[in-house]
Amino acid sequence: MKVRIGIDVGGTFTDAVAIDNDTYEIIGTVKTPTTHTAEAGVAAGIVQVLHGVMEQHNIKPEDVVFIAHGTTQATNALLEGDVAQVGIVTLGSGLQGAKSKSDTNVGDIELAAGKFLRTKNAFVDTSSDVEAGIKSAIEQLFSDGLTSYVAAEAFSVDDPTNENAVIAECSDRELPATATNDISKLYGLAIRTRTAVVNASIMPKMLEAANMTDKSIREAGIESPLMVMRCDGGVMTVDEVRHRPILTFLSGPAAGVAGALMYEKLTDGLFFEVGGTSTDISCVKDGKVMVKYAEVGGHKTYLSSLD
Length: 307
Fold this sequence. Notes:
alpha/beta, Nucleotidyltransferase, domain 5, Dna Topoisomerase Vi A Subunit, Chain: A, domain 2, 2 domains, six-stranded mixed sheet, 9 helices, 37% helix, Hydantoinase/oxoprolinase family protein, ATPase_NBD, Hydant_A_N
C-alpha cells in the first residue's frame, strides 16, 4: 500500500494524518503538543507524530510516496510579533530615487496590539559607486541592530541587477535577505517592498524550522521530498521556503479549507477552523475558495491567498 502523510504544525498541537494514496481514505492520525521549547524546536514534535503514525499503522518509509507539511508558524509569528527587525536598502538616483525613498519607507508595521515589525532604511545612490554604496548601507543597518534585509529599487522587475547585488553581498555576510523582484513581478514599489519586508522578517525563524524539519524527514528514512503547503492551496519545496517563507503565511487556513472541499464536498458556505492561537474563516462559493491579496497589519501585500 502506498501512503500519503500530511503534517500540520499549529501553535498548540502538531498533527500527522496518513491516507491511502489510491483511495484517499484516512488510515490514521496522531497528535502531540507542539514542541516550541525543545532544542530541535517544532521539528521534535514533527518527528514524534511522524514516527507515531508510521509505527501505529505499520507504515514503512518506502511506502510513503508523498509527504506534505502545513504550518501556522509564519501566521503565528506575525500575530505574536515574533519577527526580525528589517533593514531596507533602497537603490536609485535623481527624482526617481527621491520617490523610491518615500515608497520604500514602510515604517513600523503594527502586527497586533503593541506588536510591531520594525524597519529602517538606508539609501544607495546608483549614479555613483554602487558596490561601495551597498557595502556601506548594509554595514550601517547592521550596526543599528537590523538582522534581516530587503533590497528595493523601482522597476527592478525589469532589471534586477542592483537588487541582486545587495542579496549577493548579504549572502557573503551570511545575512538573510530578500529582493523585491524575487517576491513579486508586479509593478508598485511600495507594495512590493512591504511584501518583501514581511518575508524578510520571518526568514530567520522559518529557515531554522524548515532545515530541522527536512532533516527529521530524511532521518526517518523517507526518500519522498518534503513539500510545504502554500497560502494559495498549492505546495512547494523546502528550498522555496528558504527563499520565500511568506508563501506559508495563511497556509494553515488554506490546508483546512482544502480538506473541507475534498472530504465534506463543501460547495457554498463558510468554513471555520479554531486553533490555539488563531481562528480561521474561509469562504467557499460554487465549490471554489475566494482568492485575494493578503493584508498584514491592515496593509495590502502582493501575496495571493485563499480568502
